Amino acid sequence: MNEPFDYTLLRAIDSLPMVRLTADLVATAPINESFWVGAAVRNRFLKAAQCIEMSPESGAATLREWIDKIPLAADHPLYHHFQGGFPKCFVPDCTRISLSSRGFSLGEGEVVRLSLVLFGPAIEFVEPFATAVRLMASDGLGHPLVPLEVVDIHWSEYPVSLRTFAKRVIEADTTTVELRLLSPSSVTPLGTPGEEGYQSRMNGFPSFYQIARSLLFRASTLTLLYAHGLDHITSMDQLEPLVERNMAFAQGAELLMAEIARSVCRSTPKEGRNTLYRFTGYTGRLTFGSVARQLVPLLGMGTWIGVGDNVQYGLGRYSMRINQ
């Protein structure tokens, strides 16, 4: 690249604090669940959150009500863009419970680990989130519901941010990065017949450009909602050029190895409904060479925030290894 890297957007994203809440759970009896683990955990957690009372200063009666609130004024130009949809202030990490896309089973006495990554102001309410996890565990998972015992629950003492993932020194301009896609990850939709756009020609394959762009866009929108680094942005049209400016550095990456498989998983139906939603994505390993070192911290942050579609259901989880 002839143009210097513009750190403006990454400095703004660094204003987003994150905390990981981790719970070790033990099954009190065999558990069988035919739905995707992330959907089961997400839905049971949100049901428990409805029962957790909040303090008056939170501005919400229950944790679920607080989670569903968009922290933008109703007259903010982006309020309607973000209003509704799925909870955005946290994501579950269920990769230590199961990696199977076809449901999961736990034996009696089996210990598993659930993590929630909390963003921005959610870290101030980590204790109500922990209480909701305890209630979810006591209510149980599976069909029929089987309670889990909470062996340990804790959270990081200090928040992390983008700069946490920039501590590793990379001397060269580029490096080699291996991404292990732990849960189904989808950054490019499958093409729709008749469409002429670039993404419709990707056949759903997760290129480095699409992974990096998805991460940068997601980190930016989380910053818009839950931090103050991008308060000057009042429309998505203002954000797009900032994202694309940094993505010029993603175009030089080279695919060195791909060992991936497409996975399909099902969500649990909503209460009182029989409709099932299907999630698709890739799991496996991708190795990219010639990765610009400026993008490595963003890839590291992605191991916390997730990448691609349906991260609120525990999809898009991955681990990263740098091979210098």
Structure description:
This protein has 324 residues and is an alpha+beta fold. It has 8 helices and 10 strands. It has helices spanning 8-13, 37-49, 63-68, 79-82, 126-139, 208-226, 236-247, 296-305, and strands at 18-27, 31-33, 90-93, 104-106, 111-119, 148-155, 174-185, 254-266, 278-292, 318-323. The strands form 3 sheets. It has a 4-stranded antiparallel β-sheet, with helices on one face. Helix 6 (208-226) packs across helix 8 (296-305). The longest helix has 19 residues, at 208-226. The two termini are 20 Å apart. The mean pLDDT is 90.
Structure in a nutshell:
With about 325 residues, the chain is α+β, with helices and mostly antiparallel strands. It has 8 helices and 10 strands.
Spatial arrangement of strands, main beta sheet:
3-5-1-6
Which structural class do the helices and strands define? alpha+beta
Radius of gyration: 20 Å
Describe the biggest sheet? 4 strands, antiparallel
Core attributes:
324 residues; 4-stranded antiparallel sheet; alpha+beta; 8 helices; 26% strand
Q: In terms of topology, how is this protein built?
A:
Blueprint: H1 8-13, E1 18-27, E2 31-33, H2 37-49, H3 63-68, H4 79-82, E3 90-93, E4 104-106, E5 111-119, H5 126-139, E6 148-155, E7 174-185, H6 208-226, H7 236-247, E8 254-266, E9 278-292, H8 296-305, E10 318-323
Antiparallel strand pairs: 1-5, 1-6, 2-4, 3-5, 7-9, 7-10, 8-9
Helix pairs in contact: 2-5, 6-7, 6-8
